[in-house]
Amino acid sequence: MLLIPCPNCGPRDETEFHYGGQAHVPYPENPNELSDTEWSRYLFYRENPKGIFAERWVHSTGCRQWFNMLRDTVSYDIKAVYPMGAKRPDRSPDGAPETGTASTGPDSTTTGSAAPSTSATSILSTTAPEGATK
Hints:
The chain is of the alpha+beta class. Helices cover 10% and strands 25% of the residues. The strands form two sheets. The chain has a four-stranded antiparallel sheet with strand order 3-4-5-6, with no helix packed on it. It has a two-stranded antiparallel ribbon with strand order 1-2. A hairpin with a 3-residue loop joins β1 (3-6) and β2 (10-13). The radius of gyration is 16 Å and the shape is globular. It starts with a strand and ends in a 10-residue tail after the last helix.
């Protein structure tokens, strides 16, 4: 079980929290102008890196506040916790460079500067890592 450090309440058991998906996904500036394909890519297509990943979490049974967290998806080590709207930290607290591919764009609570990429090649070229299971 994970011990998640809530920025408001301190360390708590993971059962008190709910995962909110990838952090720093910018909301499209003009969502009404997106095609159905572009809108579906904004809603459903997210990164799935092996390594450091920026995530959104809410302390649902405590302070009910949202926050961002950098977590290693391989080891489950929590590298950093920071408030919504704050820029993603450049380095993990232990000083090691980050290896993940999470976006460094604006937080999803703010208006982004561009709509999500609709390049078909970026979606088709993504393959699962060797040994990955469903």
